[in-house]
């Protein structure tokens, strides 16, 4: 993928002879598949892009809990409620692993959260859409977590050790998330016509925003080429998006649902699905903060952070007291 990106001359990639001897040695380790660890020398730009990506990934996990939390008290059965709670709890854990991985790069948790709350740092656009029915819990597990798995599995082999290792556990839990989502969709599609229509309505609303999760097109991506050279990104945005389409269309057909894309069709020649144009104006509008739920999501996160200040202070006071007692002993 890196060679193809460099070939097409995408932004920011420098050739080896433009690098310093240290950077060349670093790149050689990357090219040999060596995992970079926190104490290893790394270019500032490598550190910076990892802090950017890993922290935004962590923010996505934490903000991603909010759309689903809306349906915990409305789950149709106790079992569905328990499964949804377990999933939401997993997402909190994913956020913690990822914040911890980001902290190994020399940035504080408080700084990362301040960047989220100020709007300086992003989180995945997908979490700025409302969850209007129980079927959205199915569509989110099936499509959003399904997309996340496709994007995250390659990250288990990325060049930065703490990030790659965090991803191994995250991916194992994500597969449960996707399965429980598809199970909800199956139950609805086998139910009454109204329930099946609810599932179709959810697919109609979540299909395109899920494809946007993979980022802009390769030609428009500002970070892909450099991330590919540093083996942070092992496959391009478009390649992973295509995998999502190819994997999900047969699943929609099995449910008896229609993917909301009139241009979707199997391409015998490529052995992949051709699909319609993504509405990049919508994508950039959501990234600019104008999605249906952007304000609400950030307000909720800021309030949770403020409401939790007493608990963080108590933890720090307890730890300091313990430390003083140990020092005096
Ligand atoms: N939402 C918000 N911002 C997005 C985005 C999206 N769907 N797609 C791209 N962007 C942003 C990028 O962050 C970048 O902005 P920045 O430079 O200010 O950070 C800009 O758009 C250009 O995009 P690029 O493709 O050039 O940027 P990247 O190389 O970073 O690729 C990415 C974007 C594919 C999202 C990559 O960052 C990535 O793979 N991140 C790790 C996975 C991740 O964060 N997934 C989010 C969902 S997590 C999730 O779903 C949890 C699950 O449990 C449900």
UniProtKB/TrEMBL annotation:
InterPro entries reported for this sequence: Aromatic_CoA_ox/epox, Ferritin-like, Ferritin-like_SF, PaaA, PaaA_PaaC
Instruction: Please indicate which superkingdom the organism of origin belongs to.
Output: Bacteria
Cited Pfam families = PaaA_PaaC (PF05138)
Signal sequence: where? none
Name the record gives this protein: Phenylacetate-CoA oxygenase
Which source organism?
Herbaspirillum hiltneri N3
């Amino acid at each position: 993928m890196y060679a193809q990106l460099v070939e097409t001359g995408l932004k920011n990639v420098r050739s080896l002879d433009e690098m310093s001897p240290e950077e060349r040695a670093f790149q050689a380790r990357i090219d040999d598949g060596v995992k970079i660890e926190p104490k290893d020398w790394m270019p500032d730009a490598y550190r910076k892009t990892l802090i950017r990506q890993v922290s935004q990934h962590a923010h996505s996990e934490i903000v991603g809990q909010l759309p689903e939390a809306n349906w915990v008290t409305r789950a149709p059965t106790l079992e569905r409620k328990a499964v949804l709670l377990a999933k939401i709890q997993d997402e909190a854990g994913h956020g913690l692993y990822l914040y911890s991985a980001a902290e190994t790069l020399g940035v504080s948790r408080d700084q990362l959260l301040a960047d989220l709350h100020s709007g300086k740092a992003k989180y995945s656009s997908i979490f700025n859409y409302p969850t209007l029915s129980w079927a959205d819990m199915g569509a989110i597990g099936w499509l959003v977590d399904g997309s996340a798995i496709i994007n995250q599995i390659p990250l288990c082999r990325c060049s930065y050790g703490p990030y790659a290792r965090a991803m191994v556990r995250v991916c194992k839990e994500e597969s449960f998330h996707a399965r429980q989502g598809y199970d909800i969709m199956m139950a609805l599609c086998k139910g009454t016509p109204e329930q099946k229509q609810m599932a179709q309505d959810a697919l109609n609303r979540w299909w395109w925003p899920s494809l946007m999760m993979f980022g802009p097109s390769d030609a428009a991506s500002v970070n892909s080429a450099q991330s590919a050279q540093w083996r942070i990104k092992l496959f391009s945005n478009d390649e992973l998006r295509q995998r999502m389409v190819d994997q999900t269309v047969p699943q929609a057909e099995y449910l008896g649902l229609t993917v909301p894309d009139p241009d979707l069709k199997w391409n015998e020649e490529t052995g992949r699905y051709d699909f319609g144009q993504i509405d990049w104006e919508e994508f950039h509008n959501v990234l600019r903060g104008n999605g249906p739920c952007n304000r609400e999501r950030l307000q909720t996160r800021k309030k949770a952070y403020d409401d939790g200040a007493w608990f963080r202070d108590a933890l720090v006071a307890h730890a300091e007291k313990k430390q003083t007692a140990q020092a005096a002993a």
